[in-house]
């Protein structure tokens, strides 16, 4: 799977993914109004607004990017109707040839972890048929419960040629409360990084492993250390743009070959029309604003690589 992602990155010359993390507050009024007129002020109406919003953004950006990263929580808040749109979005993006990274941050143990892995990456037996649930290409995984929580995902990656990104050093301000704590003189995030390498050794796909790592752009000195610890691990890098990470901050996430990382931007792309310099497009042309924001992001990152 990671080779598929790398190929898409090389084809587009864009080591970026668009985070499809829709909030109703991001969606232009005319889109919401039309959805409510059809379905009322209901969960179904909210889900329809999200679908139309996502579709417009994907239609304007799919040819520029290798991947998207829908955050499942943004859909779950609208219950079953939201999850239907999550699935609809996954399907539509894959039809466009995009790699879909499901940002689910799942983490549990035993049969529960195996069920999560099956739901997002694998297949389930239903009578005589083998069916898939959300069938995303890759998914984010929380390693807090250790190998018991991650191994079921790695097993499915091997079986189905799928991928995962394990949380190592996240971009949020309070991540250091646990991740930076010292154990035998070393920060926890370094210990997690070493386990990611170990988990990934049996799941290689060429130079890189199908077991990747989430490494935030907001901690550049730490990403420099982690790049050395995980030379054959692909990084999913949040924190660029709206969270304060710059292109200069994230360059350490890449290897000398210009590969090794894919940088995510969510509201900086999907809500670009709300802020300068993209507000000139107006709410009616929010898809065009998102496209220009992608063009600018790709140029900014390539400038430092």
Explain this structure.
By secondary structure, this protein is α/β, with parallel strands linked by helices. It has one domain: TIM Barrel, CATH 3.20.20. Helices cover about 45% and strands about 15% of the residues. The protein contains 13 helices and 14 strands. An eight-stranded parallel beta barrel has the order 1-2-3-6-7-12-13-14, surrounded by seven helices. A two-stranded antiparallel ribbon has the order 4-5. Strands 8-9 form a two-stranded antiparallel sheet. Strand 8 and strand 9 form a beta hairpin. The longest helix is centred in the N-terminal third of the chain and has 19 residues. The radius of gyration is 19 Å and the shape is globular.
Keywords:
alpha/beta, TIM Barrel, globular, 305 residues, 13 helices, single chain, eight-stranded parallel β-barrel
> Can you tell me the CATH architecture?
Alpha-Beta Barrel
Summing up helix and strand content along with how strands pair, one would put the structural category as: alpha/beta
Count of distinct structural domains: 1
Ends apart, CA distance between termini: 24 Å
| Helix residue percentage | 40-55%
Q: Predict the CATH topology.
A: TIM Barrel
Most strands sheet: 8 strands, parallel, barrel
- What's the overall geometry? globular
* Unreliably modeled segments: none
């Amino acid at each position: 799977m990671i080779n598929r992602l790398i190929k898409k990155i090389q084809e587009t010359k864009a080591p970026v993914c668009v985070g499809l993390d829709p909030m109703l507050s991001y969606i232009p009024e005319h889109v919401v109004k039309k959805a409510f007129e059809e379905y009322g002020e209901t969960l179904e109406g909210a889900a329809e607004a999200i679908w139309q919003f996502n579709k417009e953004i994907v239609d304007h950006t799919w040819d520029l990017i290798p991947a998207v990263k829908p955050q499942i929580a943004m859909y779950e808040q609208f219950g079953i109707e939201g999850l239907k749109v999550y699935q609809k979005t996954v399907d539509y993006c894959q039809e466009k040839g995009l790699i879909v990274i499901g940002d689910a941050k799942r983490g549990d143990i035993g049969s529960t972890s195996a069920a999560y892995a099956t739901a997002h990456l694998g297949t389930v037996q239903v009578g005589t048929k083998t069916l898939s649930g959300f069938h995303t290409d890759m998914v984010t995984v929380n390693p807090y419960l250790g190998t018991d929580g991650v191994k079921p995902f790695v097993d499915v990656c091997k079986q189905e040629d799928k991928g995962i990104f394990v949380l190592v050093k996240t971009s949020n301000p309070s991540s250091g409360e646990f991740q930076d704590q010292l154990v035998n003189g070393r920060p926890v995030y370094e210990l997690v990084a070493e386990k990611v390498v170990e988990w990934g050794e049996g799941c290689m796909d060429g130079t890189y492993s199908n077991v990747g790592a989430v490494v935030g752009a907001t901690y550049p000195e730490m990403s420099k250390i982690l790049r050395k610890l995980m030379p054959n691990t692909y990084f999913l890098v949040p924190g660029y743009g709206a969270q304060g990470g710059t292109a200069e901050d994230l360059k350490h996430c890449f290897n000398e070959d210009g590969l090794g990382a894919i940088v995510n931007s969510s509201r900086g792309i999907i809500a670009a029309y709300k802020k300068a310099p993209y507000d000139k497009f107006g709410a009616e042309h929010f898809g065009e604003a998102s496209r220009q924001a992608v063009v600018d992001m790709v140029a900014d990152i390539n400038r430092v690589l």
